[in-house]
Amino acid sequence: MTNLRSVIILTILTVAVLLSLLSPSLAEERTLTDEQKKALSAGGDFAEPAKGTRPAKLPDLTKGERIGEKNKGNTWNLGPTGIVGYMVRGFKGDQIQVTSVFPGSPAEGKLQWGDVILSINGKQFVPGQHLGMTFGKAIIEAEKKENKGTMKLRIWRDRNFAKRNGKRDVKNVDVDKLFNQAKADDSVYDWKPEAERAKEVDSDNFKEFPLDGFYTDVTLTLRVLPTYSDTSPYNCPKTDQILEDAWAVLEKRFVTDPEKRRSGRGGILEAIALIASGKPAHRKIARNWVRSKYSPWRKPTEPIGEMFKPGYRGYKGYQSWHKGFNGLNCALYYEATGDDFVLPALRKYAIETAMGQARGGSWGHTFSYPSFNGGKLHGMNPGYGALNAAGNRCFFLITLAQKLGIKHPEIDLAVKRAHRFFGSYVDKGAIPYGYHGAASTDDSNGKNTGVAFSMKLLGDYHGAKYFAQMSTHASFTRRGGHGHDYHGNWSTWGTTICGPEGTIVVARNMR
Fold first, then answer.
1. Nearest-CA neighbor of 84 among 98, 94, 69?
2. Can you give the pTM of this predicted structure?
């Protein structure tokens, strides 16, 4: 496989967002003209920004309209600004509502819960654009030396937002008065749909705390960083700086606060990220963690295959995810370090993953247990069948384990079944969700990338090139399915195995 440092480099870039949130604020809260300051001191507002025609179904938060569950989507961490918020109707909207601000970040003390971001650096958001890209590009521009980290946001703030939406103090509520009011109002006994009741409550809140909004400009000062090179993330001063900062944070977490819950399955992803630095000090930290009580890669206490015996009372759920992801990272750690301490765990991961494969060549949410198939291995998957987002990681695990010298008949047969199944989609489309025809997309959940690495390990360079190219193209499109970062990152990593002019990069770390 490709050099681990190259494969994991984008994981570090993701983790590095945490660093940016720790940067202290150096700017004044607002950059205003004298006329604007006078208008504010007199209780006046700025002029409302000019707007084009907005879609009728797009809520306008500046008019007190609600986002609604259909338009809410996910909260987004807006990078080094320290802002977390909703993009109304996702990336296609034109307003971002602040849900929280990280302490110590550039946005602390400047933005608050309920603020609505309307523009960046004088460019108003337009419905239909990609809000994520717009905000991301603005951050990159602000971080340049010539821009001194400056980012100007146009916001709308409702003075009563927190009062209207926050928790109420009910200690001094006159309960007797409420009961008397209810006695005189028969409507309290009328059944009403939940949506109607919620609308009434919302209306009452606005009566008590009416809309009281104003427009203003806020200036954030981000940390100045080197400019991205054309070859980023390779030979790039900015990438190198982000990596060094991220490694410093991870090192501190492992050394000074080992019991703190970490983001990557108890510390797995962070340990892999430290190994990727190539630094002896980081390798020592990871080595110590592997031997700690927090690591899942210690010597197993349960015999291999125990979970497949009749009457087994252990945990059976979601084993394809557990073995495929944790086992694969264990294999990557061993491939990078040669640390024999994890070999017993890796052997168990690989053999049991092979034993849990369905006869069709993939894996489901969990394994194909004999108890579900008349006492035999490799029957059908429980539930609704194959789940290739997990299955392709299982395929990657067993092929890598095989290359690393773990020998077992179950692994050999499982590799052949999986190669036949996943290879049937070469030149036809993307790996589908389950036992379906090829998907008419470039990728989803990073399902193509585990297969790309597996094909390369097996010497099937045509298949590896095909799925690597699919993964490369996925960088320019929206990937469907479960959009977890750990799934999506693999789509980017898959591009690293396809070199110039379609040649496959020669493995440098393969034992």
1. 98
2. 0.73
